[in-house]
Design goal:
The complex is a heterodimer of chains A (about 110) and B (about 110).
Chain A: E1 4-7, E2 10-14, E3 19-25, E4 32-37, E5 43-49, E6 55-58, E7 61-65, E8 71-76, E9 85-91, E10 100-101, E11 105-110
Parallel strand pairs in A: 2-11
Antiparallel strand pairs in A: 1-3, 3-8, 4-5, 4-9, 6-7, 7-8, 9-10, 9-11
Chain B: E1 4-7, E2 10-13, E3 19-25, E4 31-38, E5 42-51, E6 54-57, E7 65-66, E8 76-78, E9 87-94, E10 101-102, E11 106-110
Parallel strand pairs in B: 2-11
Antiparallel strand pairs in B: 1-3, 3-8, 4-5, 4-9, 5-6, 7-8, 9-10, 9-11
The chains are: A mainly beta (about 110), B mainly beta (about 110).
Chain lengths: ~110, ~110
């Protein structure tokens, strides 16, 4: 079955550092979503990418989807403690609105 | 305020005692979905609904039931809960094809 692999599984960075989280699929995706989750809480939508080569930014977070629509990266510039949490990528792999998610990347930002 | 609400937020029950977790959204979304989140396994879809009276299985539907009699409500029913259904459950809703809005989660423990 379709899976989304996220890397790294966890990340500890010093405040102010840049970081990148990756999400990889073995098949072409119809839509790729990035969410952030505070520990034990609900997911908050960050960005949605649908077109190959698409790139979106919001504040200090930039997400990209490669041309083949199989890999996405989430880049945080000048990280802050408020960026800490779990980042999950999600996708609709077959265009049927049956969603799958990666296992998440736990980010800790040291002040 | 646009939101997805779930009740209860926390529940401890015993094996075999039927329970229902309610989910309600006030955004007039057609699409609603239930997920469970487990350590190491990530977020997995249980059931989803494209509209009233239209429901379909996700990746892990065994042991669960849902109904969609009204657009705003999508209850999750565990007819005979077992310990392996101990998990963190999330309800979500969206306009079809758009980002999902997640509820705050229900932490269920089955003894």
């Amino acid at each position: 079955s379709q899976e989304l692999e996220q890397s790294p599984q966890s990340l500890i960075v010093q405040e102010g550092k840049n970081l990148t989280i990756n999400c990889t699929s073995s098949k072409t995706l119809y839509g790729l979503y990035w969410y952030k989750q505070k520990y034990g809480e609900g997911l908050i939508f960050l960005m949605m990418l649908q077109k190959g080569g698409e790139e979106k930014s919001h504040e200090k977070i930039t997400a990209k989807l490669d041309e083949k629509k199989q890999q996405s990266s989430l880049h945080i510039t000048a990280s802050q403690p408020s960026h800490a949490g779990i980042y999950l990528c999600g996708a609709d792999p077959s265009g049927t609105y049956k969603y799958i998610f990666g296992t998440g990347t736990r980010l800790k930002v040291l002040a | 305020e646009a939101q997805v609400t779930q009740n209860p937020r926390y529940l401890i029950t015993v094996t075999g005692k039927k329970l229902t977790v309610t989910c309600s959204q006030n955004m007039n979304h057609e699409y609603m979905s239930w997920y469970r989140q487990d350590p190491g396994l990530g977020l997995r879809q249980i059931y989803y609904s494209m509209n009233v009276e239209v429901t379909d299985k996700g990746d892990v539907p065994e042991g669960y039931k849902v109904s969609r009699k009204e657009k705003r409500n999508f209850p999750l029913i565990l007819e005979s809960p077992s310990p392996n259904q101990t998990s963190l459950y999330f309800c979500a809703s969206s306009q079809i094809g758009n980002e999902q809005f997640f509820g705050p989660g229900t932490r269920l423990t089955v003894l």
